[in-house]
Amino acid sequence: MANPEAADRYPATLPLARLGDRPLARRSRRDATRPLRCDRDPDRGERYDVLLTNPPFGTKGANQAPDRDDFTIETNNKQLNFVQHVLIVLKPGGRAALVLPDNRLFEGKAGEVFEILMQDCNLHTVLRLPRGTFTPYCLGVKANVIFFQKGRPTEDVWIFDARSNMAGITKKDRPLTAQHFAEFEKAYGKDPNGQSKRKDTGDTGRLRKFHLSEIKEWGYKLDITWLKDESIEDSDELPEPQDLAGEAVTELEGVVDDLREIMALIEKEEGVEK
């Protein structure tokens, strides 16, 4: 269970290693954390100051549109719907750190969802997590954490690449530790809302800044990379076979989700014609 006091002491990084178990939310110092659900329950009217959470992973509940009429973007993708749910339940001025797999930054209606998010929130930081961050719970899932504050539109998005040219996480030999996020925490700064002074480290560094105009040109997709990942070419640094298989499954699930979206649109248009 997340610690409210710890969330304030380490606003950027401490909760990251704990986000793989289940969705967590913190409403106030006196309110215990509990799962956030958007696929079953309608909006209960609860609003939160701080959210440290992740959407449901895997195929359970896939292709099932939530019974909600308050989502701006219509999609059957449960992870993108979860992003919309977080946007609704976050209080004005509230901040969130949300884990998302790589393919949810660009596939399907991701661009439409992030466009809405950036209009209502300052999506100031994206952290590309190291390979194997959620080992052994979600093998092969490459993920990110997006940090945003509700109440002001996005002007710039800072992206920190903690994955390229870094050894992947393993359960025994290279377990995930706080040290994996030390450089990111320093770059993030002390302001929990991402407003600390930062420096773009250029094409060879890990921290880059992208203006909203650039993000808009890319269709509000956030799968932005600039470092050549030489570790992929090193046979000694290749992911474990089970991780590679997990990555393949994740990619295939993304393709299946896109096909389901297309099928849903076709069925909807055919229904209108009839």
Structural class of the secondary elements?
A: alpha/beta
Radius of gyration over all CA atoms, rounded: 18 Å
- Can you count the beta strands? 6
Distance between the termini: 51 Å
Which CATH architecture is right?
A: 3-Layer(aba) Sandwich
Mean pLDDT: 78
Into how many domains do the coordinates divide? 1
| Overall helicity | 25-40%
Largest sheet: 6 strands, mixed
Count of helix runs = 6
CATH secondary-structure class: Alpha Beta
N-to-C series of helices and strands: HEHEHEEEHEHH
The shape is globular
Low-pLDDT regions: 1-33
What is the assigned CATH homologous superfamily? Vaccinia Virus protein VP39
Strand order of the largest sheet: 1-2-4-3-5-6
Oligomer: single chain
β content, as a range? Answer: 15-25%
CATH topology, by name, is Rossmann fold
